[in-house]
Amino acid sequence: LHPLLMVIGFILLGGEAILAHRWLSGWSRGTRKSMHLSLQGAALGFGLFGIWAKFKGKDGILASFYSLHSWMGILCVALFATQWVVGFLSFWHRGEGRRTRAALLPWHVFAGLYTYGLAVATAETGLLEKLTFLHINHGLPRRSPESALVNALGLALVILCGLVVLAAVSPKQRSSKDGSVATKKAGHCYSNGHQKAIKFVQSYNNEDGTMNGKWIPF
Fold this sequence. Notes:
Order of helices and strands: HHHHHHEEHEE
Strand order of the largest sheet: 1-2
CATH class of the largest domain: Mainly Alpha
Distance between the termini: 51 Å
Largest sheet: 2 strands, antiparallel
Number of strands: 4
Shape: globular
């Protein structure tokens, strides 16, 4: 139950939350923020339940908290919970000022991608740990269907992580009003988000054919 809950929560739902906020351009900003926050909250719930399912045994938490996998898992849950709380207070509840949110946003994006990568790395160490236990305690052959299944799952998680991160950081293309295509790089508007965005509008003088440029704020 523990591996299933953690993969569904932190990797599948967490990845969907990243993609929902990044690529649902047809939805309003408030709807995308609500979807992102809800999916991240559901992922955190699955993760906490998965931790409880692992540590609810009679030996207690300390008996299971010894391996690199468990240490990485606790760190991942702590970062995920911190991210959700900071995101809720700063970007949803808007407890911070506009300039503070603009300065915080690049770090929030970085921490989110870092936590997602850490979740995948933690899952990989968990798969390796489980496979090692099967080899030692149950005499599982090295070349077996179970080993191939674990390796395939680990490879699939790595590929999924790469696709999610690529989708999150790749440039977005949007069509402007005149039909041209503009490229918007992820995080570019966040670094200077506290400054007023401006647009250069080219206007042509119909009488003499000269071009006049003026800066107009959005």
